[in-house]
TrEMBL record:
InterPro entries according to UniProt: DUF3750 (IPR022224)
Name the record gives this protein: DUF3750 domain-containing protein
Pfam families per the UniProt record, alphabetical: DUF3750
Signal peptide per UniProt: 1-21
Length: 245
């Protein structure tokens, strides 16, 4: 009983209280009432593609809309080949064609929320990795209509996390708040990144752990992630994000 009590207290302080605090702040914050009222225009983060000849890869994350925004964000991938005059943006969405290409501006706001740049790679390294990213996108098993579930996954963040695991040379993991990032495709309970430096164990995205060079140590409960980043010292707090270097 003492162990269960401590476990309950740990859940309360590590997961529930941050989520409730974020929900309270989100409730009183001014925000769009619906997707029709939201601003989906460019946040003007990226240079115009024709002004920068170098190949580039970007991964973005932005707080989502409705009350989901209290604890969750949406992520996507942007690529540009060397000399290209346009970006290619890839999102997984819950309507129409699930893997949406160029449905929005590459650095567009999401439900009026300014996106956060998770990682960027440019130049020769980007040229080398873009074919790997395209291959990972093609291999994503939930690419047909109807293959979307907002929680615990597979959703937009499941898609981006799949690509990051398949192309570990990008050197990135999604921040703590993209709910669905820990759902492993095809119902797998265990996975190791392509380079063997990160491992993931999960019970269908509901309860699990990630550990390794990029992930540090993470424990996810019901889609909420808490953890420590070792290589770039930081703490990961459910619903609130990553705080550190």
């Amino acid at each position: 009983m003492k162990f269960l009590r401590r476990l309950l207290l740990a859940f309360l302080f590590l997961y529930l209280l941050p989520a409730l605090a974020s929900a309270g702040w989100w409730y009183v914050k001014e925000r769009p009432g619906s997707w029709r009222e939201a601003d989906w225009s460019s946040a003007n983060i990226l240079p115009k593609p024709g002004d920068d000849k170098a190949a580039a890869i970007y991964v973005f994350s932005a707080t989502t809309g409705g009350m989901k925004g209290a604890v969750a964000s949406h992520s996507w991938i942007v690529t540009k080949g060397e000399g290209d005059t346009t970006y290619n943006r890839y999102d997984k969405v819950g309507w129409g064609s699930p893997i949406r290409r160029n449905g929005y501006a590459a650095d567009a706001k999401w439900y009026s929320n300014r996106p956060h740049l998770v990682v960027s790679v440019k130049g020769e390294e980007a040229t080398r990795l873009i074919p790997n990213i395209e291959k990972a996108i093609q291999s994503y098993p939930y690419s047909k209509p109807g293959a979307y579930r907002i929680w615990p996954g597979p959703n937009s963040n499941t898609f981006v996390a799949h690509v990051l695991r398949c192309v570990p040379q990008l050197g990135a993991v999604l921040p703590p708040d993209p709910v669905g990032r820990d759902y492993l495709p095809e119902g797998k309970l265990f996975a190791i990144d392509a380079d063997g430096l990160d491992m993931h164990a999960t019970l269908y995205g509901l309860l699990g752990i990630s550990a390794g060079i990029r992930s540090g140590l993470e424990v996810h409960v019901m889609g909420l992630v808490a953890g420590l980043d070792i290589m770039r010292p930081a703490v990961k707090i459910p619903a609130l994000g990553r705080f550190g270097v």
